[in-house]
């Protein structure tokens, strides 16, 4: 932990570096501690109480009561399963696909590159309410775009978001379109940053394109990949607005995620903040574990 | 580079075809929103059995007229929707500026400095991102209330900005970007006698500029779309953002799609402009090779 | 290692403390600077109150400001700030505001939420206002909609209107199904005729589907519930006051399931009431189960004739669900504000000039008999007014209503998708009371 590698540096220097580092960190920490950590601690504390709208948000301490209740709640488990499906499908696809698009467009002429980067970023830009309105129409069972196309080819239309087996995949598809914009931008930037002299040297040595990619570029874009993976993981775990606007967790909880269920408990049904916060804490722990795993696996290859 | 491009491999052809097909798929929702905003009601809500109207049959500005109907006094007399747009821009720009400053400083320190508590602080940043925002919403509102920031228009705008700036994703991103700064050149600067701040601004900063540009856009867009915070903090109609304002134009049972599309089109324009403006920063990463070699 | 960690924790804690402290010191100085929002107009003794309004007076109609201006002219000691909220996100905003202590002073809403807030102790009692109103109420059941679990009045009602069905006349004619609909008198009709009508529509293919039982989303659940409850005269509340679908309710659900299987009805698993209404407007479906005075306005169509009918029932006597609009006053621990808020509510509802105006603006019928018939000469509205006699027992204010609604959607989805109605109903009866 925080041990310096250069043992030759004196204690004074080390202390000076610590002070300087904290000065660099100070502005970020001000906002972070003041407006994220403080309410977060309050939220975590609430998860150990039975606070709800009905008791005036003045809960009494019930220890791990909310957590014990979670483990017996079948809807929570169903939501947890859906959440895992979303993450396990979305994270690898988003990461791999954005890396593919990134590497396909980064060496294009700047006009074409800008065009594609912008295009793939559009779904992020357009805001979820309006985008969901359009998607809702596309998925419409009676006169939606997808069934229109299927019917045009003589097929039989599907129920899409109305079908418990398909609904989650519809959510994943939209999540995918709204998730790849940022990674593509990052990959284009990161690939542009790859040390060109190393690439050229390897090419002179007769390395194939694939070899150049894996041996030279991949290690150098590793920090970006790690960032993309972690951020996509968090976003997929916390996927919520889409579900709220498109399916409200249905049909029959087939698209309910932990995040959606948490919201439903806190704001729609019983308004038990303590119980909802407990769900949030569990979700955070799971995400943190996932992220730690990603750090472990991916940081293995890179030096600090 | 140049001669590579001239060789057209089958793979490259497949790539281009796939990319173009996907591009159409990705553009479509926005196309639908923009055309929907100038369509007449009968073109948006198509009767059963009628063909889909791919293009507006007539251009109608009625949706925009309704969007701009309500007026407000802000500097000059203007439609309330423009005030909402201003609020959105205000929140996004201030959040962007503050985040860029705080995150690049902090990210640089976390990546390139060895200090006591570093791993702890970084872990705290990452873990905080893992906790869903819904959990902090109610405590945050009480906190802002205690600080007296919810009572006034400007105060409530800042009540949205501060948590966005505090949200650690920017720090995390800049840390990852700063990892790629070669230690040698920082060491060289130090040996040359540059102070910490000068090293950061003159040596480190130019190297992380592409990341900086990306961060600027991401923060801008994220704060633009940061719906739950806006919903809870912003109450008066003068303080609303365009996203909140548009949502407020729906009633319980009816969705006025034309109005939603007009609002969404209006809201998308500034972000696309910002995106295009910041584009050039992403592409300035070529300096990197020169530095290392 | 451990020591380091503890130290780091302490550091973080102390930092957060010092930040909180300086944050607390800094911010109030911001307030006056931002507080210049309302220049002039505010005299020293003025009481400022905030009114949060759902768009019950119409979206963006400006009526709220109009009536508030009239109130302020009559009561110069009060300043009213109006904030409009929408039905999609507004309830969440209210939940957050109430629990964080930033609730408004006055809220214009419906009993479901108001009584929930009242039972939780956030509202002031309106018993005095209610007492004065009692002699003038159009329907005695209305009192029931305004009181909490302990009998305290938390809502002051202004207007009410029934929920009913809408039919597409031309589509029915095309399918030769209009014969099953009663267009005489109060238009009450039987379950048998409803089934026949749906089957005729399905056979003729007059519209893509005859009707859609929507099973998703928020709001609008009263429509499907009224349909189920009326088909075989069942109730959603048991004799013990708990949520309970009885044997007749099961029969109704089985009937609907059979119609779904035969294509005489469709089910919209991902559809909310608004989606179903849109399909009705687009003539994808020939009927809607969520018709009402305001929806009839929002989903009007020039392409076909929309007929209003009550829900069909086996005995031909419908029991309608209905909407009640009303106000509540939050207890923000300031007597001046509470007094001003109550005066505002009384002005909007009872003022000789503005009272009737407000009722009409809400598109519903007055709860006061003394207001008389506000829709003189309007045939449709007179018909609807006659249905007030069919108002059923009101249960939206019962404990666990919000939970029941969610369970209701899930139950419908399971009934249509998985069958075995009794089993699904059993799950509902258990979960809704949890």
Overall strand count of chain A: 0
What's the end-to-end separation of chain C, in Å? 48 Å
CATH topology group of chain A: MetI-like fold
Strand percentage of chain A: under 5%
Strand order of the largest sheet of chain C: 2-1-3-10-4-11
Give average pLDDT of chain C, whole number.
Answer: 84
- Silhouette of chain C: globular
Contiguous helical run count of chain A: 14
The protein's oligomeric status is heterotrimer
Biggest interface pair, counts: A-B, 108 and 104 residues
* Total number of helices of chain C: 18
Helix content estimate of chain C: 40-55%
CATH class of chain A: Mainly Alpha
**Helix coverage percent of residues of chain A?**
over 70%
Proportion of residues in β-strands of chain C: 5-15%
> pLDDT below 50 for ≥5 consecutive residues: which ranges of chain A?
none
Q: What general outline of chain A do the C-alpha atoms trace?
A: flat
Description:
The complex is a heterotrimer of chains A (304), B (293) and C (434). Chain A is mainly alpha-helical. Chain A has one domain: MetI-like fold (Orthogonal Bundle). Chain A has helices at residues 11-46, 65-71, 74-105, 110-125, 128-138, 145-152, 167-179, 181-192, 196-204, 209-220, 222-237, 241-246, 258-268, 273-299. In chain A, helix 3 packs antiparallel against helix 11 (222-237), helix 4 packs antiparallel against helix 8 (181-192) and helix 11 (222-237) runs antiparallel to helix 14. The two termini of chain A are 13 Å apart. The mean pLDDT of chain A is 86. Chain B is an all-alpha fold. Chain B has helices at residues 2-6, 10-37, 41-44, 62-67, 80-112, 118-130, 133-146, 153-166, 169-178, 183-191, 196-224, 227-233, 242-248, 257-282, 287-292; strands at residues 71-74, 76-79. In chain B, strands 1-2 form a two-stranded antiparallel sheet. In chain B, strand 1 and strand 2 form a beta hairpin. Chain C is of the alpha/beta class. Chain C has helices at residues 2-26, 30-34, 63-74, 90-100, 111-119, 127-134, 141-146, 169-174, 191-204, 221-231, 247-262, 273-281, 293-298, 335-350, 354-361, 379-386, 401-418, 421-431, and strands at 47-53, 78-84, 106-109, 156-162, 164-168, 212-214, 266-268, 287-291, 306-309, 322-329, 365-366. In chain C, strands 2-1-3-10-4-11 form a six-stranded mixed β-sheet, sandwiched between helices. Chain C has a three-stranded antiparallel β-sheet with strand order 8-5-9. Chain C is globular, with a radius of gyration of 25 Å. Chain C starts with a helix and ends with a helix. The model of chain C is unreliable at 1-43 (pLDDT under 50). Chains in contact: A-B, A-C, B-C. At the A-B interface, helix 1, helix 3, helix 4, helix 5 and helix 8 of A face helix 2, helix 5, helix 6, helix 7 and helix 8 of B.
């Amino acid at each position: 932990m925080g041990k310096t590698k250069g043992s030759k540096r004196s204690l004074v220097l080390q202390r000076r570096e610590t002070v300087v580092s904290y000065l660099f960190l100070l502005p970020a920490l001000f906002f972070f501690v003041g407006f994220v950590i403080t309410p977060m601690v309050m939220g975590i504390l609430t998860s150990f109480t039975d606070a709800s709208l009905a008791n005036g948000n003045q809960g009494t301490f019930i220890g791990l009561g909310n957590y014990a209740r979670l483990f017996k709640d079948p809807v929570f488990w169903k939501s947890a399963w859906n959440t895992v499906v979303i993450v396990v499908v979305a994270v690898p696809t988003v990461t791999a696909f954005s890396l593919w698009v990134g590497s396909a467009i980064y060496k294009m002429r700047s006009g074409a590159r800008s065009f594609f980067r912008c295009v793939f970023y559009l779904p992020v830009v357009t805001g979820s309410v309006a985008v969901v309105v359009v998607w809702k129409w596309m998925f419409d069972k009676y006169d939606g775009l997808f069934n229109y196309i299927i019917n045009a080819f003589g097929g039989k239309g599907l129920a899409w978001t109305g079908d418990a087996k398909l609904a989650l995949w519809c959510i994943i598809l939209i999540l995918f379109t709204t998730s790849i914009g940022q990674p593509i931008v990052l990959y284009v930037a990161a690939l542009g940053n790859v040390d060109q002299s190393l690439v050229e040297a390897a090419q002179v040595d007769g390395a194939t394109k694939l070899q150049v990619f894996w041996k030279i570029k991949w290690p150098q874009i590793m920090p970006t990949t790690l960032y993309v993976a972690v951020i996509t993981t968090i976003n997929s775990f916390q996927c919520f607005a889409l579900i709220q606007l498109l399916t409200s967790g249905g049909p029959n909880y087939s698209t309910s995620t932990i995040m959606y269920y948490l919201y439903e408990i806190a704001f729609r049904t019983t308004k038990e903040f303590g119980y909802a916060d407990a769900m949030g804490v569990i979700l955070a722990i799971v995400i943190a574990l996932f992220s730690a795993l990603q750090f472990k696996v991916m940081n293995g290859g890179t030096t600090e | 580079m140049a001669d590579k491009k001239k060789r057209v491999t089958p793979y490259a052809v497949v790539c281009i075809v796939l990319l173009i097909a996907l591009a159409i798929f990705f553009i479509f929702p926005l196309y639908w929103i923009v055309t929907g905003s100038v369509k007449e009601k009968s073109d948006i809500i198509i009767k059963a059995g009628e063909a889909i109207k791919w293009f507006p049959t007539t251009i109608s500005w009625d949706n925009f007229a309704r969007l701009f109907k309500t007026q407000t006094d802000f500097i000059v007399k203007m439609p309330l929707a423009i005030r909402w747009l201003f609020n959105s821009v205000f929140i996004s720009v201030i959040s962007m500026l503050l985040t860029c400053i705080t995150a690049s400083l902090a990210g640089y320190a976390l990546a390139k400095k060895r200090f006591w508590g570093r791993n702890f602080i970084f872990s705290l940043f990452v873990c905080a991102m893992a906790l869903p925002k819904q959990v902090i919403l109610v405590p945050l509102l009480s906190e802002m209330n205690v600080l007296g920031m919810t009572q006034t228009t400007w105060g409530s705008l800042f009540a949205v900005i501060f948590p966005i700036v505090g949200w650690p994703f920017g720090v995390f991103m800049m840390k990852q970007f700063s990892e790629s700064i070669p230690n040698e050149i920082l060491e060289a600067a130090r040996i040359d006698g540059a102070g910490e701040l000068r090293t950061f601004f003159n040596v480190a900063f130019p190297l992380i500029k592409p990341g900086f540009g990306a961060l600027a856009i991401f923060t801008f867009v994220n704060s633009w779309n940061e719906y739950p915070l806006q919903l809870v903090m912003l109450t008066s109609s003068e303080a609303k953002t365009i996203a909140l304002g548009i949502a407020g134009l729906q009633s319980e049972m009816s969705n006025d799609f034309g109005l939603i599309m007009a609002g969404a089109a209006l809201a998308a324009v500034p972000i696309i402009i910002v995106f295009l403006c910041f584009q050039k920063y992403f592409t300035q990463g070529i300096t990197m090779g020169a530095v290392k070699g | 290692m451990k020591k380091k960690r503890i130290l780091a924790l302490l550091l973080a804690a102390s930092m957060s403390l010092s930040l909180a402290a300086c944050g607390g010191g800094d911010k109030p100085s911001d307030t006056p600077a931002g507080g210049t929002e309302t220049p002039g107009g505010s005299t020293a003794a003025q009481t400022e109150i905030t009114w949060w309004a759902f768009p019950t007076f119409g979206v963006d109609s400006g009526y709220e400001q109009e009536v508030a201006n009239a109130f302020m002219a009559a009561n110069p000691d009060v300043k009213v700030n109006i904030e409009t909220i929408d039905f999609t996100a507004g309830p969440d905003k209210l939940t957050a505001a109430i629990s964080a202590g930033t609730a408004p002073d006055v809220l214009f809403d419906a009993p479901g939420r108001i009584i929930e807030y009242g039972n939780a102790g956030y509202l002031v009692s309106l018993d005095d206002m209610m007492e004065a109103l009692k002699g003038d109420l159009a329907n005695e059941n209305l009192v029931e909609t305004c009181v909490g679990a302990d009998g305290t009045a938390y809502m002051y009602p202004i207007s009410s209107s029934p929920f009913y069905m809408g039919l597409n006349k031309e589509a029915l004619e095309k399918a030769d199904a209009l014969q099953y609909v009663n267009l005489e008198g109060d238009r009450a009709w039987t379950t048998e005729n409803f089934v026949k009508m749906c089957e005729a529509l399905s056979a003729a293919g007059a519209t893509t589907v005859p009707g859609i039982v929507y099973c998703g989303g928020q709001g609008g659940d009263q429509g499907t519930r009224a349909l189920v409850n009326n088909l075989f005269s069942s109730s959603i509340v048991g004799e013990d006051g708990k949520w309970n679908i009885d044997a007749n309710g099961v029969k109704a659900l089985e009937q609907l399931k059979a119609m779904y299987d035969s294509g005489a009805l469709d089910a919209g698993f991902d559809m909310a009431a608004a989606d179903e209404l849109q399909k009705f407007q687009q003539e994808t479906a020939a009927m809607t189960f969520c018709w009402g005075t305001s929806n009839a306005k929002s989903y009007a169509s020039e392409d076909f004739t929309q007929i209003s009918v009550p829900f069909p029932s086996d005995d031909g006597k419908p029991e309608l669900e209905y909407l009640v609009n009303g106000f509540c006053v939050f207890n923000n621990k300031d007597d001046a504000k509470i007094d001003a808020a109550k005066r505002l509510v009384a002005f909007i509802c009872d003022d000789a000039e503005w009272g009737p105006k407000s009722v009409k603006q809400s598109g519903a019928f007055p709860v006061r008999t003394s207001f008389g018939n506000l829709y003189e000469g309007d045939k449709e509205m007179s018909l609807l007014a006659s249905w007030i006699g069919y108002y059923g027992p009101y249960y939206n204010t019962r404990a666990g209503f919000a939970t029941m609604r969610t369970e209701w959607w899930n139950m419908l989805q399971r009934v249509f998708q998985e069958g075995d109605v009794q089993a699904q109903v059993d799950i509902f009866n258990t979960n809704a009371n949890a």
